[in-house]
Design a protein that fits this description.
By secondary structure, the chain is mainly α. It has one domain. It contains nine helices and five strands; from the N terminus they run αααβαββαααββαα. It has helices spanning 3-15, 18-27, 37-67, 91-94, 111-124, 134-151, 154-162, 181-193, 200-216, and strands at 84-88, 98-102, 105-110, 165-169, 172-175. The protein has a three-stranded mixed β-sheet with strand order 1-3-2. It has a two-stranded antiparallel ribbon with strand order 4-5. The radius of gyration is 18 Å and the shape is globular. The two termini are 14 Å apart. 34% of the residues are buried.
Length: 217
């Protein structure tokens, strides 16, 4: 790929806003096939706002505990609490930077994907958005909030915010889960808590674009 082609590719990727990337992600899920794109954008925006708010709460709680002089400050906004981190490879084949498993609470960080994302940041001139080391930090933060959503009450709060109705019986309204919303909230959480200029969704799109030519060979 020539430098000019690479520059055009980077500009094209960056021209898509983060909410649109979120809506496109939702649109790839079979449960959302045929849904109104405007609804998908709405859900993507709500999930992003929710994730950013979670990050603000986490930072405030962490700072408050530190300022109070607590012997053990809990609630690390990036890694979370009681989560083991292991490093491995194979993320590029899976299309993942990291993944969270609940038994035991573990974040598996794929160093090949992290390294590839860092190379793309340099090649595309996105360092202002993604400072050195932030890809790893964002991957950890992303999975840490999945841990919170898995064990905490935030999942129900997100469902309420999305307001997707599954059933109405008179005044009774049963809310449905929106597939993919937790993933988008986790991306927004990572962006906010790590101080990134763009959502990690942009990196996901760049990684997918860079992998496409290799798959076609």
């Amino acid at each position: 790929m020539s430098p000019l082609t690479a520059a055009r590719g980077a500009a094209g990727l960056a021209a898509v806003d983060d909410i649109e990337y979120g809506a496109r992600f939702l649109g790839t899920l079979s449960l959302h096939e045929g849904r109104d794109p405007a609804l998908l954008r709405h859900w993507a925006a709500v999930a992003a706002e929710f994730g950013a708010a979670l990050a603000g709460d986490a930072r405030a709680a962490h700072a408050g505990a530190a300022n109070a002089g607590a012997d053990s400050v809990q609630g690390d906004p990036v890694r979370g609490d009681s989560v083991r981190v292991v490093e491995s490879t194979g993320g590029l084949e899976r299309g993942l930077l990291a993944r969270y498993t609940s038994r035991p609470p573990t974040i598996e960080l794929y160093t090949d994907s992290v390294d590839a994302a860092e190379r793309l940041v340099r090649a595309h001139g996105w360092r202002e958005w993604f400072p050195a080391g932030s890809v790893r930090a964002a991957a950890l933060a992303h999975e840490a909030v999945h841990e919170r959503l898995h064990h905490g009450s935030e999942r129900a709060v997100l469902k309420q915010a999305l307001g997707h109705t599954a059933l109405r019986l008179g005044r009774l309204r049963v809310l449905a889960h929106v597939a993919g919303a937790e993933e988008l909230a986790a991306h927004a959480y990572a962006q906010s808590v790590c101080g990134l200029g763009r959502s990690p969704l942009l990196l996901s799109a760049a990684l997918a674009a860079s992998a496409a030519p290799a798959r076609e060979k």
